[in-house]
Each structure stands twice: as C-alpha cells, then as structure tokens.
Design a protein that fits this description.
binds pyridoxal-5'-phosphate; Aspartate Aminotransferase, domain 1; 4-stranded antiparallel beta sheet; 41% helix; Aspartate Aminotransferase, domain 2; 12 helices; alpha/beta
C-alpha cells in the first residue's frame, strides 16, 4: 500500500514550495521563552472542559484516527464507514485498509451532506475543516450531529487537526458518539517534535487508550513539555500564525482578481490552505501541478484528495515575498494554459 500524496511530496522539490498545509514551524527556543510547562493532560482538561476519561494522548492525528476506527471496530460499532471526496488521502485509505465497508460521497459546498448517511453502526469519518476545501461544521452543527448519531447508534471520527484555525473556543464540543483527533502538526507546529491527542466519547476513548498502549505507548515527556507551553499560549500561537497566513491571503485575493476568470477558489477565512479549481477544459490538477513543477513551484494536485480538478496551495509555510512569486507563476501558467480554451459551461460543474 502507498499513500501517493506523501510519495509526491517526498519525490519533488521546488524553490517555491507551497505544498505544505501547515504553518512555518516554531523554533523550540522560541517556545521555551513563552513560559513553563505544566501537566499536559491538565491543560487539555481545562482547554476542552472535559474529564480525563474523555482524553487519550497519541503521537499524532493519524495515529488517533487509526486507533479510533480500530477501537470502534473492536467494540463492534462499525458496519459501514462514510468518507467524503475531496479528502486527505490517509483518511480515504484507512477504512479500506481495515477491510471495512466504505462509501465515499462527493461534497461541494457543505459537509452537512454527511448527515444523510447516519444509520445504525455507520461511522462518519472526515476532516473538519476539510482538507483541502476548508469547509467545516460549526459547533452548533456538531451538536446536531452528535444528537443524531446518538439517536441512531452511530459514531463520527472527526479529524480536527485544522479546527483551531477556525474556532478559538474549544469548550463545549459534544462528546457523545463523537471522537475528535488533534495534533501539533498544523497549528502548533514544531519541526523537531510532535504530539497528538484524542477527545471524545468515554467508552470509545477507553478502547483507544488500550490500542495506543498496544501499538505505541508513552509519548516522551520532553515532547509533552513543549506542547504544554504552546497550548497554554494559544492566543500567541494564533496571532503568530495569522501574521504569516493573512498577508498571503491578501496577495492571493489581489492576484486572483487580476486574472480570475479561469479559476475558482475555495478559501475559508484563517485556514492555512486554499483549493484552486481550474476552469479550463482538459487541464487536470496533476497536469497543472507538473507544469508548475517545471517552473519551480510545488503544489499538491487534487488527484490525491480523490478529485483531480485543481490544486491545493499552502498559505502558511512561506513568507509573503516567496508566496507572491509563487502565485504570479501560478497565474501566468494558468493564462498560458487556458487563454482561448476557457469553457464557461465547465465553470460550475
Ligand atoms: C487532515 C489531516 N490529518 C492528519 C494529518 C497529519 O497529522 P499527524 O502528523 O498529526 O499525524 C494531516 C497532515 O497534513 C492532515 O491534513
């Protein structure tokens, strides 16, 4: 088995690399200057307003996803997994890998489409906000989802790695029949270390803790210390991240306005990624990403999210000067490819 998204990232390099969906890592020395470490589990109890029994510590979000789906399988709670397209490839692949029956549904504007698939022993498994589109279920909708799942005896595993970009208050998330997975990989980024955590339904979290103990017990204390400092300084991290992301968003909006006819942008405020659909006939995301590579710009084609209709561009891992050059190259290439070929009837298909 292969996660092609990772192969793409590992086998390509470019001067203008906007392939990452995270924010520039925070150097460990800067983390140390922010304060003292506390008990990380206590930090989580306070931030999420939950009980320790609702918490598991992992090494990353994907480990949390793996443990959550496996836990539900062990508990006999999964007959059918529902995933969406477009979606982060490891999420789409995991149910198949576990030999679970899977249905993939295509979403366009909203994740609420998922509500139609709730049945006894179904598990909704999705990223919220969605990678690559950024669309997300608000807290109010998450409560409605939890109510509906409880009524129908179904569950949701929600990869929430991007949640803090769009939601600063993490209290009052619904716990019943819900599992949320998190890590430091996007919002609290450090290149030297990583920690993950799971928040959710007590009975499932108990099983998750058992699975983590089986596969990869005990996150190293030093990692927990750094993440404890960062998570206590969430406001600082937010400001710092937005200081990188928002100037790039402004540049993106300016450049798209200048040459907007051939693209359609999916961008949700404060997210570190945008998805650019190409509105010119015959030009796929992978063709276009390869063309950009020849001009020293690295993006991620839609192919790796299940729909090859555009490219994902990261907004948080390069500073404005490089981002502007990357965007100009992207728009120039679109004009080269699409001028004369634009088919407006394709626009919203
Ligand atoms: C939706 C989603 N989940 C999980 C991950 C990876 O998380 P981790 O490194 O914590 O396993 C990514 C990385 O891009 C992601 O986009």
């Amino acid at each position: 088995m292969e996660i092609e998204h990772f192969t793409w990232l590992r086998t390509h390099k470019a001067r203008y690399d906007v392939s990452s969906s995270g924010v520039k890592p925070i150097p460990l020395d800067d983390v140390m200057k922010l304060g003292e470490a506390e008990d990380f589990t206590e930090n989580l109890v306070n931030i999420y307003g939950v009980n320790k029994r609702n918490l598991a510590i992992t090494h990353g979000t994907q480990e949390g996803n793996f443990a959550a789906l496996t836990a539900l399988r062990e508990l006999g709670k999964v007959e059918h997994v529902i995933t969406v397209i477009p979606e982060y490839e490891p999420i789409r692949v995991l149910p198949r890998f576990l030999h679970l029956r899977q249905t993939e549904i295509v979403i366009n504007e909203s994740l609420t489409e998922l509500f139609n698939y709730i049945k006894k022993n179904s598990v909704l498994f999705f990223s919220n906000p969605n990678n690559p589109l950024g669309i997300f279920l608000s807290k109010k909708l998450l409560w409605e989802l939890s109510d509906e799942l409880r009524r129908k005896d179904a569950y949701a595993v929600i990869d929430s790695i991007f949640l803090e970009f769009v939601e600063s208050n993490l209290r009052d998330l619904p716990m019943e029949n819900m599992i949320f997975t998190f890590s430091t990989s996007k919002f609290y980024t450090m290149s030297e270390l990583k920690v993950g955590w799971v928040v959710g339904d007590e009975s499932v979290v108990k099983e998750i803790n058992g699975i983590v103990d089986l596969v990869s017990p005990l996150v190293i204390d030093l990692n927990l210390k750094y993440v404890s400092i960062l998570i206590q300084n969430r406001k600082w991290v937010r400001e710092r991240n937005l200081g990188i992301i928002m100037p790039n968003v402004e540049i993106m909006r300016k450049i798209i306005k200048e040459a907007g006819d051939y693209v359609n942008i999916s961008y949700v405020e404060y997210m570190p990624i945008l998805y650019m659909r190409l509105r010119c006939r015959g030009v796929t995301g992978s063709y276009f990403s390869n063309k950009l590579l020849s001009k020293d710009v690295l993006t991620v084609p839609g192919q790796y999210f299940g729909k090859d209709d555009g490219i994902r561009i990261g907004l948080g891992s390069v500073l404005r000067n490089d981002f502007e050059i990357a965007m100009r190259i992207i728009m120039e290439s679109i004009n080269e490819e699409c001028a004369g070929l634009h088919d407006p009837t394709d626009a919203d298909s």
